[in-house]
Amino acid sequence: MIQLTTNIQVKKSADFIYEFLLNLDKEKYCKWHSAHKDFTVIKRNEQEIGSILYFKEIVDQTVVNFKWRIIEITENKLVKMRALYFYPICLTIGLESISEATIVHHQLHVGFKLKFLNLIPDWIIGNTLFSQRKRKSQQQHAIEEYKNLEHLL
User: Fold this and answer.
1) Is residue 137 pLDDT above 90, yes or no?
2) What is the mean pLDDT of residues 29-36?
3) Residue 123, C-beta contacts closer than 8 angstroms, at least 6 positions apart
């Protein structure tokens, strides 16, 4: 499994960030970062778990467009999504309140958790679609996103 963690300090409270994430629309999403191109709520559940969202962005000249299902949520602390894709991809956004700011823990997990399933596929993915250069670009994108969020909120 490939794990990519980026920690970003945002000078906003966790509840503002959490509310922003759960109340996204296309306009807010596209203002959030210039790489963001499209966003749609496909299915919204009252408790958010099971909701399906579509995100399209361009990171390192690569179009990244997946449908995501929210699989776990903790108010003002955590939003976890799984891509509706043939290969396992999970995104976890953890929010840790500190004095007058929030640490956003942006974690991307790509691949299988079981060792015997992940050796060859993870090697291929890690050296092609999710190379070291693309990982650095993804981390830079996450930093830019959350720094931009300070100005949006």
Assistant:
1) no
2) 96
3) none
Q: Token pair of 4, please?
A: 């990519």
- The single-letter code of the amino acid at 9 is Q
pLDDT tens sequence across 72-90: 999 999 999 999 998 889 9
Neighbours of 51 (CB within 10 A): 19
Structure tokens at 48: 């958010």
Q: Given a cut of 70, is residue 126 above it in pLDDT?
A: no
Tokens 């559940």 correspond to what residue? 45
Give one word for 59, left, alpha or beta, with left for phi > 0 and alpha for psi -120 to 50. Answer: beta
Instruction: State yes or no: pLDDT of 144 exceeds 90.
Output: yes
6 neighbors 142 (Cβ within 8 angstroms)? yes
E runs forming strands in the chain: 2-10, 36-43, 52-59, 62-74, 78-83, 89-98, 101-110
Enumerate residues 6+ apart whose C-beta is below 8 A from 131: none
Query: Strands 52-59 and 62-74, how do they pair?
Result: antiparallel
